[in-house]
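Example 4.3 (complexes with small molecules)
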Amino acid sequence: MRVLLIEDDNAIAEPLAEGLGRYGFAVDRVGTGAAALAAPVPDMVLLDLGLPDMDGIDVCRTLRSCSRVPIIMITARGDETDRVVGLELGADDYLSKPFGLRELVARMRAVTRRARLTDTISPGMPSGGGTGPTSTPQCVGVLLIDRRTRRVHLAEVQVALAPKEFDLLALLAEDPGAVYSRQHILDTVWDPNYFGPTKTLDVHIAALRRKLGNPTWIETVRGVGFRLTVSAGGGEDHR
Ligand code: CA
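Answer. The structure with calcium ion bound is encoded below.
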């Protein structure tokens, strides 16, 4: 089982990851909400609510908007409001610091059992892990890209894209951060061996940037092509 541990405090994250490893969990660690949302959807999420770049509650909401992956919130905040809001947003369980490793593992197992049961009763949205990019909407930062319905949501608001604009975004989102060459984009989104004016591509990039509202998300790599670098925090870049 692949566990994504979202915790900025190394003093907690390190022994926790090590301990869970002893129980047979494969743990990926990230220290920010942005890194968590950019990571592949795991089988289980352990989410610290106090993160340096964004509120853990927002991470929970965004994760839940595109996946049924089990989420256990972990926090030092003793605030009942957080617990209630988190659970209403779809977190599966809640653990207050300090807690013991054995208690956490017991909760993880219980949540996994419940998730399997729910999947059996109401199959539909996959619980994450092993799902193809065409069937599951993909979260890239605050963007939600649904290739099946060809819809894009930006912080839960739908963005109206022209067909080629969608194809272009979907291609760049296949591997966020990776550089896609102009020729590869033209070959894939337009036609193989595209011979038309390459300005077409620039026009579509410009339109996409305008519609997404943050020009920095589609970065021009001079002399090569473009890459997608969506931040998790909305309009501003929080990195
Ligand atoms: Ca923290």
